[in-house]
């Protein structure tokens, strides 16, 4: 009898522990212009150069949620709008979301040198991180997020733009892709970011 009771208690403890783990990794809510990844996807690590000229890997951002955006400094509208909203996100909730990292990966490595990126990112937020590299390498990285970017035909003066995906990709503390934002409101992006920030699973375990 005692052995049976002990086994029953052990099973119950495992069930409780399993329920707690599920709670930690609870499914994110469905919000307007937010696509939740049904099965969290680990993005393969990569290395690019930041705005200070230092090599940075994706793994170096683990430990806090990271919002990744593909853009370029000559972008006339989509990038400034997205980055301004992300700046508002970091300042929302009484500053509670300052730990959420914002990373812009330049798709225009030909023009976006570390120095150019530093001036651009500093003008928006000194807390933001800019990454740059060879366009072919960045194209491969974008594909891991299912993002699209390609160079448009240059005009007679040699000026060109880039067509690129406008969504922001939300990674959790362990570097898993959990959601993407398609011109989502600051409020909805902040809701998802706060939930990822409050999670105790992933890199902290």
Detailed description of the structure:
This protein is of the alpha+beta class and 205 residues long. It has one domain: Glutaredoxin, CATH 3.40.30.10. It is built from five helices and ten strands; from the N terminus they run αββββαβαβαββββα. The chain has an eight-stranded mixed β-sheet with strand order 1-10-9-4-5-6-2-3, sandwiched between helices.
What secondary-structure arrangement, pairings included, does this model have?
Blueprint: H1 2-24, E1 34-42, E2 47-50, E3 55-57, E4 66-71, H2 78-91, E5 101-106, H3 114-124, E6 129-132, H4 135-144, E7 149-151, E8 162-164, E9 168-171, E10 176-181, H5 186-198
Parallel strand pairs: 4-5, 5-6
Antiparallel strand pairs: 1-10, 2-3, 2-6, 4-9, 7-8, 9-10
Helix pairs in contact: 2-5
Short description:
The chain has helices at residues 2-24, 78-91, 114-124, 135-144, 186-198; strands at residues 34-42, 47-50, 55-57, 66-71, 101-106, 129-132, 149-151, 162-164, 168-171, 176-181. With 205 residues, the chain is an alpha+beta fold.
Output the number of helix runs: 5
CATH architecture group name: 3-Layer(aba) Sandwich
Tell me the overall shape.
globular
Count of discrete structural domains: 1
What class, by secondary structure content? Answer: alpha+beta
Our Rg estimate from Cα atoms comes to: 20 Å
CATH class: Alpha Beta
Q: Fill in the CATH topology.
A: Glutaredoxin
- Average of the residue pLDDT scores: 87
* Overall helicity: 25-40%
Oligomer: single chain
CATH superfamily: Glutaredoxin
Largest sheet: 8 strands, mixed
Low-confidence parts: 1-24
């Amino acid at each position: 009898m005692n052995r049976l009771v002990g086994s029953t208690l052990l099973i119950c403890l495992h069930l409780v522990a399993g329920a707690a783990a599920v709670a930690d990794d609870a499914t994110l809510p469905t919000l307007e212009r937010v696509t939740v990844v049904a099965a969290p996807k680990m993005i393969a690590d990569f290395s690019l150069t930041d705005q200070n000229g230092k090599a940075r890997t994706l793994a170096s951002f683990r430990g806090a949620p990271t919002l990744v955006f593909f853009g370029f400094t000559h972008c006339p509208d989509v990038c400034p709008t997205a980055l301004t909203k992300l700046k508002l996100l970091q300042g929302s909730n009484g500053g509670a979301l300052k730990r959420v990292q914002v990373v812009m990966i330049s798709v225009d490595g030909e023009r976006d040198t570390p120095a150019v990126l530093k001036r651009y990112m500093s003008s928006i937020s000194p807390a933001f991180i800019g990454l740059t590299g060879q366009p072919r390498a960045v194209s491969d990285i974008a594909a891991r997020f299912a993002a699209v970017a390609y160079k448009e035909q240059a005009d007679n003066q040699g000026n060109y733009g880039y067509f690129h995906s406008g969504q922001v990709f939300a990674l959790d503390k362990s570097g898993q892709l959990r959601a993407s934002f398609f011109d989502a409101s600051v409020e909805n992006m902040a809701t998802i970011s706060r939930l990822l920030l409050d999670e105790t699973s992933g890199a902290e375990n």
